[in-house]
Design goal:
Layout lengths: L3 H17 L12 H24 L3 H7 L2 H28 L1 H23 L3 H6 L2 H29 L3 H7 L5 H15 L1 H8 L1 H9 L9 H26 L9 E3 L18 H9 L15 E5 L2 H26 L9 H19 L8 H30 L2
């Protein structure tokens, strides 16, 4: 039987995993973004999903073989588009800045990812707007969007305390029209993960018939959706590896001085942050855009800690996967309003990634206004998860 309170807890675990996965990457030394992102990605999108699905579900390969081709193709396709959304987030930051770009992208992602599935199924007016429980969930979505807005305003306020030189370097090519256009693309594409999970409903039904527990029914779908996400990220990382001549980093411990980084916490980014986002946060200024030519490399006498880097990437990648592992568990507990899981997902990510940012003192010196706005954002986001959970509870008791 569904239990929305347990579902909310699972979604908080989603936020913990998503907000924490980048912490191990802080320890990766002297690797380019494309190197450590792809190394961790193999664990995120391939190794962890397949191993856990094999161990926990029943007859994984027969289930995927028996699944309708349309379910497989749509789940893969939406995973592909979701990968595009994560990678284009960097262009949004390029034209709007991290904070404003984040607010627009995550707001659109939360709204589209939550509302489009019931609209597409034709039950939005009858089951959502037309019921008390549905209207409570809509209120929770609105509160979540208000929290995202407050988080964006907190970031903007934080950026204003930077020096004029840092502000200029942060947004070198501010362009509202281009920025909003790319933000819409990124937000809508990032919401496609929710569509991919919904498209995989026939796969869930099959795995249940094969004896898989209700709690784990989403794991075979994750295998398919994440192959799509892997495809997008692999192609882009391969392009960067060839363009920047960084492919050797997978095989040699000879160090590149250019790639000594100290990655910060991505406080409010989408699940697959682009290279620009990481470099923006790591350096605080001097955002490198996609079209920029690779800088001249300088060799150092130091050695790259290869084993350490691979282990940290494995930890980061596996932690990243667990956000969707817990997501599918939480979704099973939300009753007929399982579409609301996406709002819980987005809210929890921002809550825990912001807490990590506070823990690593990335808001130190941000000013009183930024701190107050961040506190308001956290209050609203936590409140939205409670409201959405209560709405789902009302949906169960209304029968």
């Amino acid at each position: 039987m569904a239990n929305p309170a347990v579902g909310v807890v699972y979604h908080w675990l989603v936020g913990l995993a998503s907000g924490s996965f980048y912490v191990p990457y802080r320890g990766v030394k002297r690797w380019a973004w494309e190197t450590y992102w792809l190394a961790g990605g193999f664990f995120s999108w391939i190794i962890a999903p397949w191993i856990l699905a094999f161990l926990i579900t029943k007859d994984l390969l027969p289930v995927l073989h028996e699944a309708p081709a349309s379910a497989i193709l749509w789940a893969f396709f939406f995973g592909l588009l979701w990968g595009v959304g994560g990678l284009t987030f960097g262009l949004t930051m390029r034209y709007l800045g991290l904070s404003l770009g984040m607010a627009v992208v995550l707001g659109l992602c939360a709204a589209f990812g939550t509302l489009m599935p019931p609209i597409f199924r034709g039950v939005f007016m009858s089951e959502v707007v037309g019921t008390t429980s549905g209207r409570v969930i809509l209120l929770g979505i609105v509160v979540c969007l208000a929290g995202i807005t407050a988080a964006g305003l907190a970031g903007i306020s934080k950026e204003r305390v930077m020096s004029p030189e840092q502000q200029k370097a942060t947004i070198k090519e501010f362009d509202l029209k281009k920025g909003i256009g790319v933000a819409i693309l990124s937000g809508v594409m990032s919401a496609c993960f929710a569509y991919g999970l919904a498209a995989g409903d026939p796969i869930k039904a099959l795995t249940l018939r094969h004896g898989t527990s209700t709690l784990w029914q989403g794991l075979p779908v994750l295998v398919v959706v994440l192959i799509g996400g892997f495809t997008t990220n692999f192609i882009w990382c391969l392009i960067l590896l060839l363009r920047n001549k960084t492919g050797h980093q997978f095989f040699t411990s000879r160090a590149d001085e250019q790639y000594q980084h100290d990655a910060g916490i991505i406080e409010t980014a989408v699940d697959a942050p682009s290279r620009e986002v990481v470099e923006h946060i790591s350096q605080r200024y001097a955002v490198q855009v996609m079209e920029a030519p690779p800088a001249q490399k300088k060799w150092t006498e130091g050695r790259v800690p290869m084993l350490r880097n691979y282990l940290l990437c494995a930890l980061a990648g596996t932690t990243w996967y667990f956000q969707f592992f817990f997501y599918t568990m939480g979704e099973t507990q939300m009753g007929r309003y399982k579409f609301s899981s996406w709002t819980l997902h987005m809210a929890s990510i921002i809550i825990f990634s912001s807490l990590w940012g506070i823990g690593f003192k990335e808001w130190k010196g941000a000013g009183r206004r930024a701190t107050q706005l961040l506190a308001l954002a956290l209050f609203l986001l936590v409140g939205s998860t409670v409201i959405v959970g209560y709405g789902n509870y009302l949906g169960l008791t209304a029968k």
